[in-house]
Amino acid sequence: ILIGGLILLVLLIGGSFALYKIILTGDKENELQANPFELHLKEKNEINLEKTYTSDEEALKEVPYFEFSVEGKYKTPSVIEYNIYLEEIEESKISKDLVKVNLIKMEDNEEQEVLKTTKVSDLETYEKESQRLLYKDTLEFSRLNQTPTNTYRLRSWVMEAISDFGDYGDIEGGSLIIEPETYKFRINVAVEELEKGVNPPILLDNMIPVIYDEKQESWIKTTENNWYNYTKKEWANAVTLDTTKAYDLSKNKNHVPISGPTKVDNGLKFDGVDDYIDIGFANKEFTNGFTIVVNFILNEMINEPRIITNTQDSGTTFYIQSNKKIAYVIHDGTGYKDIPNTGIIELNKPYEVIATFDNTDAKLYLNGSLIGSYHWDTPTQMKTSPMPFSIGAEPDPGVHIYNAPITLQEARLYERALTEEEVTKLYNNEEVSDKGLLSYYNFADEFKPGQAIDMNMITTMWVWIPRYKYRIFNANLTGGEVSEEQEIEITFEKDKETTGTVRCMDNINNSDGTSETCEDKTNGEIKNGVSTYTHPAFTFGDKELTGFWYGKFENGLESSNLVIKPDVTINNNKALSTFFQETRKMELQNNIYGFPSNATAYTATGDLTGDDNNLDTHLTKNMEWGAVAYLTQSKYGRCENGNCSETYANNSNQYTGRSGGTNKLENTAYSTYGAYSYDDYVIDNTNKKTTKDKGKGVGASTTGNIYGIYDMSGGLWDTVMTGIRGQDVTATGFTSYPNKKYYDEYSNGTTRWDVAAYKRCKLGDATKEVIKILNIENGGWHGDGSNLIRNTIQVFYRGGGAVGSVNAESRGIFQFDSNTGYASSALTDRSVLVIY
Questions:
Q1: What are the angstrom distances between the C-alpha of 390 and each of 215, 244, 267, 270, 292?
Q2: What is the pLDDT of residue 94?
Q3: Higher per-residue confidence, 113 vs 94
Q4: Residue 430 confidence (pLDDT)
Q5: Own/partner pairs for 805-810, CB < 8 Å, 24+ apart?
Q6: Can you list the positions of beta strands (E) in 645-771?
């Protein structure tokens, strides 16, 4: 916590006036360490004031302000959110209703009111009753903006008060001394902390933490300091992007393929042999001039490398001459004009070069400073080029010579000339108008916190399921013990600790037909409502997990690639083995998702040749589905004070992330496109989004808001990796079962709806424990279907599909059915990402 100046209000009560005294002592500096950030609170002035104020208007005009600032020190490109609040430092008799405050933020030396005049009593309580929140704000750290600072001015005063002291009679000495009351508080600043007690998500370098911005109606990059809150049902979400494309961060969204360069920590590395990016704009007329902005590092000097160019007896180019001098040329219709400059580029150093042309003057800037210019007496346009702009090579697609061995960090193209002031702002990493911005690529900081991520860029969306234990509620199914719908008690565990009292081990083909043997070493026997069980989904093979990433949607297809995102065609009509192979191959080297991998080929066991990374993508197991279902049926998901609701069903038989807008649906409610998208937009009969109907789309998620997991009810049937020991797997497409860590194994049997069948199931898999009525097909919680695996019918299907023989009323997150694992148009799959 950063403790700021002491604000002392001294109130003298009497008659019909309020006299108070403010003493603000500045010159304090306090520091907060919250790795990787540092924040400093600096107080800038000192006030000693005595005066009476009778209205807010007079106070705002006359009360001197107390100025303070919050300053950050750069550690890594990110944003940190912090709270400014008032804290009483001793109890006072003065009512909070009498004390008013007003907060100003300085923007470009202008006062911007961020908190209107407000009674302290009306401020939101921060953490304690004595703490009142003034304002939430952020500091943005970036490669160039290393010490961001926000400055504020606080004004405070006491409202006019009337107090009747009554008749004191004769007063000896002729005077009455009334001791003034004081109201003392101070300014504090605190970093917004992540929820305690929940294992933080593990991010790979290619994964971007995101939150949903309602105003932009987009997922935006966030920081790990402002990401999730499971208590508020805001589960952690992350996305990956197609790493084979360059993403245009301008409004034009000019996304183009990358040809060769590879991502490195500080940018995009070109090999100087055949790497380039074609950003287009061939035959573009720059009637109002142009600006080229390039941030790069020259790795070696070969053959006059082209940094960015579109020349073909026309156009412009910026390249490095053999003597490492910058060359900037423009074709004005009569020939190329070489813009004289003093720029010299050294190897392995970062540079920002900005070239501008306004049809009269061409200017070249190096790291914010003007290094060269050329003037045309008669205004002229650059001669239009038939070649596209190319980064890192000559633009001719048949040639691509003069390749540049550079590390590219940023590139921008404007169809106007930036002013000198704008050039300076860019170098200082300050905002510049997007007017005329044709394309903007950033390969160093990539997405900055707060920046919207176009759904077209996203390849996968994931939701973090943190390690937890749950309280046992139906462990001993003997024929009469079945469970009613109830809230499942979840307790998050720290790191990889196992605090549950129950332990279970596979005991396949046990004489009593069970699939596992369980015991409670603490309580002597497993007791419903007493025993707890660390969910087995957090054990993957021989590794304990702090959590795992679950596909936010059923797997879909986009340009024949497997993707996890809303509003795309569902991946279907494949055998279980094919679904499994596709999810495993997501982590092969050079994958479009950016997962780091040296793996070169898929093997029959499900292992990958050359796989030496710390991640694993695979088809969801029955136990992993169960872990998500149980978290959904808790206070962190669909339950409020013991009352739990179902997820809405996806009523589309072809698209991911759709919703029918209700818990249960008639079979006739299912259609090609469904009724709503995941973000509440109504879907019309041409598959277009129209108006919004709040809650109808997000109701299909496990949290009832946009942060949950979708398609766990309806959509298509989700195949999950299960098997029965000793059974032939031919129908699944496998020649033999893969590595044991990739599936859940069960004992064999012949029945599907009786006690013997449910004994074959396991604790945690959301089958046996959630049975409400035995011997009935829709006898699970919420009336969901319950049809056990048996004999050769050895694969579980979960969630209930929009097509199939089972009634729509029986579909839901606790629904399970069984089949052989053959290919069917009614079947799809879902991915899991494990990071060790």
A1: 35, 16, 17, 13, 12
A2: 66
A3: 113
A4: 86
A5: 806/777, 807/667, 807/778, 808/649, 808/664, 808/665, 808/666, 808/667, 808/669, 808/670, 808/714, 809/664, 809/665, 809/666, 809/778, 809/783, 810/777, 810/778, 810/783, 810/784, 810/785
A6: 681-683, 689-692, 717-719, 722-724, 744-746
